[in-house]
From TrEMBL:
Residues 60-155 form the Methyltransferase type domain. Pfam families: Methyltransf_12 (PF08242). The keyword Methyltransferase applies. It comes from Labedella gwakjiensis. GO terms for molecular function: methyltransferase activity. Keywords: Methyltransferase, Transferase. This is Class I SAM-dependent methyltransferase. The keyword Phosphoprotein does not apply. GO terms for biological process: methylation. Transmembrane segments: none annotated.
Length: 275
C-alpha cells in the first residue's frame, strides 16, 4: 500500500507542476486570475444540482491545484481543499493568492482527512472528476466522508463512471471492456508520460496504480456508513477526451461518444445526505 501511494504521489506532484503552468497550457489558470467570476467547467456542469451553497462549510477532497475548489468559494461556500500532493497544495495556494479567493488548503492523505480536519464539522463534502480511481478501498473513503459530515450534511461527487474505467482507451474501433469493473485488491499498473490536458513537457514520474469501484459498491459503502442517497444522475459526457478517436467535443469542455453516443454512461453525479 505504501509503495502504491508514494508512487502515485510522485506522479501527481509531477502532474501538479505541469497542470499549473501559465500561458494557456495545463488547467489554464491564467483565466481564473483574469476573470474573478469564472467557474471551472466541472463545477459549472453541476451548478444547478449543487444549488445554493452560500455559507456552507465545505471540504473538497483530492482538490489537486484548486481550480474546482476556488470555484466552490466563488459560489459562496467556505472551502477547505485537501490533497496528498505537496506540490498541488503549493500551486493551489499560489493560485488563490493571485485570484484573491478565500480558500484554505491542507496537505493530507484523503483517508486521514477526518483526523486532520475534525469529525462532524462539514456541511458539504465535494469530490470531483478522477478522484476515486486512486483509492484502494471505497469503504474507507465512505467512512471518511461520513466522519467529516455533520448530521444532515451532504456529499456531492461527479466522477468517471466505472463502466468508462473498464474500457481500453487504446482500441479505437469500438468500445472494449477489458479492465475490472469491480474493486480488486491488487491495482492496475500504468506507465505513461502523458496526462489528460496539454502540457509543455512529458511527465517524468510515469508509473501509477489505480483501482476501479463498481456503482453498487460505491452506493453500498455510503449506505453502510450512514448516508442516504438523494440523487444519482448518469451522464453521456466526460470532461476530457477519454476515448481518443471515438469522441466529439461539445460545449462546456465536455466530450461525448460520436457514433456510439448514448451506448454507455461516461460519468455520474451522486448526492447523499448523512442521517
Amino acid at each position: 500500500m505504501g509503495l502504491h501511494r508514494e508512487t502515485n504521489r510522485a506522479n501527481w506532484d509531477d502532474r501538479a507542476a505541469a497542470h499549473a503552468a501559465e500561458g494557456g497550457l495545463g488547467y489554464g489558470i491564467d483565466r481564473f486570475v483574469a476573470d474573478r467570476r469564472l467557474l471551472s467547467d466541472v463545477v459549472e456542469f453541476d451548478r444547478e444540482r449543487l444549488g445554493d451553497i452560500t455559507g456552507l462549510r465545505t471540504v473538497h477532497l483530492q482538490c489537486h491545484i484548486g481550480t474546482d475548489t476556488l470555484s466552490l468559494a466563488r459560489l459562496g461556500a467556505r472551502v477547505t481543499g485537501l490533497d496528498f500532493s505537496s506540490v498541488a497544495i503549493e500551486k493551489a495556494r499560489v493560485l488563490v493568492e493571485r485570484t484573491g479567493d478565500d480558500v484554505d488548503f491542507v496537505e493530507s492523505d484523503v483517508y486521514a482527512a477526518a483526523d486532520v480536519l475534525g469529525t462532524g464539522t462539514f456541511d458539504l463534502v465535494y469530490t470531483g472528476i478522477g478522484a476515486l480511481c486512486w483509492l484502494p478501498s471505497i469503504d474507507r473513503w465512505a467512512a471518511t466522508v461520513s466522519a467529516l459530515l455533520r448530521p444532515g450534511g451532504r456529499l456531492f461527487i461527479r466522477e468517471g463512471h466505472p463502466v468508462l474505467w473498464s474500457m481500453n482507451e487504446t482500441i479505437d474501433d469500438d468500445l472494449h471492456l477489458r479492465f475490472p469493473y469491480f474493486e480488486q485488491q491488487e491495482p492496475l499498473e500504468w506507465d505513461s508520460d502523458t496526462t489528460y490536458v496539454a502540457t509543455d513537457r512529458p511527465i517524468v514520474a510515469t508509473k501509477t496504480y489505480e483501482w476501479n469501484h463498481g456503482m453498487g459498491e460505491i452506493v453500498t459503502a455510503l449506505l453502510d456508513h450512514g448516508l442516504r442517497i438523494t440523487g444519482l444522475v448518469e451522464h453521456r459526457t466526460v470532461p476530457w477526451e477519454a476515448l481518443p478517436g471515438q469522441m466529439v467535443a461539445v460545449e462546456g469542455g465536455e466530450f461525448r461518444l460520436d457514433a456510439l453516443d448514448g451506448v454507455a454512461p461516461l460519468t455520474y453525479t451522486l448526492q447523499a445526505e448523512k442521517e
